[in-house]
Structure formats: structure tokens, C-alpha cells
């Protein structure tokens, strides 16, 4: 389904649009004049059909509810070329992050790995788990066998404070 | 120079070759590093879920750096470098965010300090240690090696934030390679992304991005690809075989971290550079050194 199809049956919701603008802490997004520099250089365009200029337009028109429940916002590679090249400071990357956050708030479908990463941070402080690696000669190594320094987890107070941070919107 | 070091998650949990080689070469070039007291996430994957929580984590890293008493912080991961830099800018430009973040940090007895400068290994070596010092330290010039550089995305863009090198025509990594006596070639796909962020949601597309770039670089007939970010290292080195499958190519391109390459030129023992851990066929490159 093309992202434009999202609009066919939908009605704009300007309150949701304001939520996104509030998250962006600025109204530069409304200055987007559809020059399509973002989409021309988008890493995810060829593979996953992400068209950042359409996202910009849809948010400006108020189709935020449709976007925040669409898979398309999870196709961004975060290469930041669109931020760099946008002549209007209407950064599609930051708009996509705001839409993702809204999707989480509204309990829309979110790729599981993101939620798992947050829960690992909460439990251990790190978003990844320590891995044993196998060398080209099939020997297994870990931090200890490589004589790398001990790594210390955050103090207990971290969990409480990080939970508070996660409650902020 | 003495600096605090924030490794991030990826290096500490799997990209050990980057950590081993960075510790070794930085020490040899007179950079004394002090690890932060705790290992935590910079906020990168958290950002897609809750931007404020990511800003909190990024600022928490700066507060842990502040606790070392040092004013320079090295962040060798591109993604961490970006998230922490943006967190710092937001806290400094938005009074409400600053108040909220500082309040949370205070609950843990941590203190934010705006004075801390954030370095990546690339600008630290290029701008602070200096090409001259590196050149003098080279014991075994890498003459005859033809290499392609991959700087990655997030230390280059976006320029308004203050990044490590020029966004559209980065040169520092190439200069650093040339200083070792090797040749760093220019190529069309230089700014193409490794795709690592997509491993969270679209694994095959992520691998396909990495595979396409590897295929293009291999076609240049170079001796290897040089990276300086653990995510790029993961995609191009660790996952090279998986990436090859998605683009239907036979890939056998040596991929090394710049810190490993530098170590070779400083004549450091290969084990001390973690070269036994690379998954790509680095022997091809090593045989020419």
C-alpha cells in the first residue's frame, strides 16, 4: 500500500498535528515546500519506498493518526541525509522520531526489537547483551578471555529514575 | 591528553576488536583514557520509543563523564556520538528540558556539566593528536595498500549540530589513512549507509544495504574497507556473509577498524589489535602489509 492511500478514507486531525509540532519544539515543519530533496537522497526509498516528503505533507495536512499507526515510519534508516539537505529545517528524521513516539504512546504496532532494547536498558543499563564471539579459527572469545576490563552496571537508583524518564511525554 | 571514554553498548558487548585496538593505539599515541564508572546505553534505540528518555540517557553519560573530573569525552561509536551531541544541545537550548533532566540526574547524585567536549576517535586523532604525531609514530608504513574509507552517517550529519567532518565531502579518515602510507581511494558509494538501524525492524533490508555497498567496494579492486563505527563494523565485517546472501554476491572483502589499521602501521602485534576477531578475510590485507 502506498502511503498516499492512507488519506483516501481519512479525515485530518489537527489536534494530533499539534502533538507532533509540540514534540518538535518548533514549527519549521510547516515551511516544507515539497522540494523533494529529502526523498531524492533517502536511503530507505529504493528498498522500502519511504518518501519523507510525503510524510511531511501528510503531517502538515493533519493525517497524523494514520501515519502513527503505519509501518512506513519504521522504515527510516536514520542516516540523517534528509536533515542535512533540507533547505527549510523541516527535518523529516525528527518528524519520524516524533511519529514513532506517538505510535508508542497510542500503543500502535511497534517493532518488537525497540521495546526489547528499552527493557534491556531498564534491566541492565545496556541495550545489548554480552556476546561470545567466534574467531575465524573457530575459537570462542568473550571479554574475560580477551582480558578486557570489567564492565560495571549502573547503580540501583538508575532503574527508578529511568522509569520516571520513560513516563515523560 | 587524558580523556574520559564512553564505549556504548555495541563495542562493549560484541565489537571487541574495536575496543582492543583503540585501547592499544590511543595509549601508544599518548592519549590516556579513563572508562566511565558505569556502562550504560547512550539512548539511541530508546529514542524511537521515547525521545525524552533518550535525552536523559545521553545527558547521563555526560554527567558520568563529569564525575571523572575530565573535560574531554571520547565516544568511538557514531550513533552514540550523535545521540549524546543532540542531548547536549537540547539541554543547553531548552530550559524546560534542562530543568527536568537535571532534576532526574540529581536524584542519583549526578551533575551535568556543559563544559565537556565530545570527541570521536576520528577527529581526536586528526585534530588533537595530529597527523604529524601519527606520521612520526609510524614504524611500518602501509605502502602499496589501496583502501576505501567508510565514515558512516551520524558523525557527518547534520552540520548544524557540529559534526566531526564535512557532511558531503568528508576527508579526515582519508587523511588518516594516507598518513599511514596507504592510499585511500574516492568512490561513488562513499556516503552510502551500512543499514544497521534497520536491524531493529527490517533485517533483510538492513543486510541488503550493507551487501550492496560491499559489492560496490569489492568491485573497485581495493585491498579493504576501513570503518570507524561499531555498527558499520557489525554490518560490513561480522555480518558480511549474511549480507552477501541478500544481494546474491560472493563477498570476500577485508574490513578493518581504522584503529586496527593504525596499529598495523605502528607495528603492534596483531593479537593486540583484535585482528583474530574480524570475520571478513583480513588475511588478504595482512599479507600485503
Structural features, described:
The complex is a heterodimer of chains A (169) and B (289). Chain A has 169 residues and is mainly alpha-helical. Chain A has two domains: 103 residues, Fumarate Reductase Iron-sulfur Protein, Chain B, domain 2, CATH 1.10.1060; 56 residues, no CATH class. Chain A is built from nine helices and two strands, in the order ααααααααββα. Chain A has a two-stranded antiparallel ribbon with strand order 1-2. In chain A, β1 and β2 form a beta hairpin. In chain A, α1 packs across α7. The longest helix of chain A is centred in the middle third of the chain and has 14 residues. Chain B is of the alpha/beta class. Chain B has two domains: 118 residues, Glutathione S-transferase Yfyf (Class Pi), Chain A, domain 2; 157 residues, Rossmann fold (3-Layer(aba) Sandwich), CATH 3.40.50.11810. Chain B contains 13 helices and eight strands. In chain B, the strands form two sheets. Chain B has a four-stranded parallel sheet with strand order 2-1-3-4, with helices on both faces. In chain B, α4 packs across α5 and α4 packs across α6. Chain B is globular, with a radius of gyration of 19 Å. Chains A and B meet through α3, α6, α7, α8 and α9 of A and α1, α2, α3, α4 and α6 of B.
Topology:
The complex is a heterodimer of chains A (169) and B (289).
Chain A: H1 14-24, H2 37-40, H3 43-48, H4 52-61, H5 64-68, H6 81-85, H7 92-105, H8 112-124, E1 133-134, E2 140-141, H9 157-167
Antiparallel strand pairs in A: 1-2
Helix pairs in contact in A: 1-7, 4-7
Chain B: E1 2-5, H1 8-13, H2 16-28, E2 32-35, H3 44-47, H4 51-67, E3 72-74, H5 78-93, H6 95-107, E4 117-119, H7 121-137, E5 146-150, H8 172-179, E6 183-185, H9 203-219, E7 224-227, H10 230-238, H11 240-247, E8 255-257, H12 258-265, H13 283-286
Parallel strand pairs in B: 1-2, 1-3, 3-4, 5-6, 5-7, 7-8
